[in-house]
Amino acid sequence: MISAASAPPKLFTLVLLSGLSVVSLNMFLPSLSNIAAAFQAGYGLLASMSIAGYAGMTTVLQLLIGPLSDRFGRRPVILVSLVIYILGSLGCLLATDVWSFLLFRTIQAAIISGFALSRVIIRDTESAQKAAGLMGYLSIAWAIAPMLAPMLGGSLDQLFGWRANFIAFLVFGAAVLALLVSPRSSQHK
């Protein structure tokens, strides 16, 4: 539950947090061939491991996020997850070989807490009728983000190289983290 000392975050913040979870899955996909070339790794290995490792980790984390957020609170779990995501993004950015890249890519999966807990926070803080409407806004982010993310990732790759995607992940993650820790983000609506 959200502690009495803090109000729930604004819907905008939850949409961003949830959208970041979705964007992180596929924004870098257009860069896979350039990443494989940079690390002199097979494209098939890199593609399958970077997607499967991330997806597998999100599956495991979703089993843990619920109990952890029930025990420690939604906010601390999201904040820790964002910090882990930022560190994973930094690791991908600075990786010098395919195996460290894949490890840090898997660590980035910590952002799944944004996807899972955004819905829970709405359910915890709103009436059933209002929650249904607010979930619609999250659904819009989940629908639009996977369409736009590869286009953005491909553009960043073409203009600045594949590492630009991970700079963007760092910036997006840090911006959402700053938004969550700012006093204004805790004012609902």
The helix content is over 70%
Cα shape: globular
Backbone CA Rg: 17 Å
Largest sheet: none
Number of strands: 0
The percentage of residues in β strands lies in: under 5%
Number of helices: 8
Helix and strand sequence: HHHHHHHH
Given helix and strand content, the structural type is mainly alpha
What's the end-to-end separation, in Å? 18 Å
Describe this structure in words.
This protein has 189 residues and is mainly α. 80% of the residues lie in helices and 0% in strands. The chain is built from eight helices and no strands. Helix 1 packs antiparallel against helix 8 (163-181), helix 3 (43-72) packs antiparallel against helix 4 (74-94) and helix 4 (74-94) packs antiparallel against helix 5 (98-107). The protein is globular and about 55 Å long. The model is unreliable at 1-5 and 185-189 (pLDDT under 50).
Secondary-structure topology with pairs:
Elements: H1 11-26, H2 32-39, H3 43-72, H4 74-94, H5 98-107, H6 112-125, H7 128-160, H8 163-181
Helix pairs in contact: 1-6, 1-7, 1-8, 3-4, 3-5, 3-6, 4-5, 4-6, 4-8, 6-7
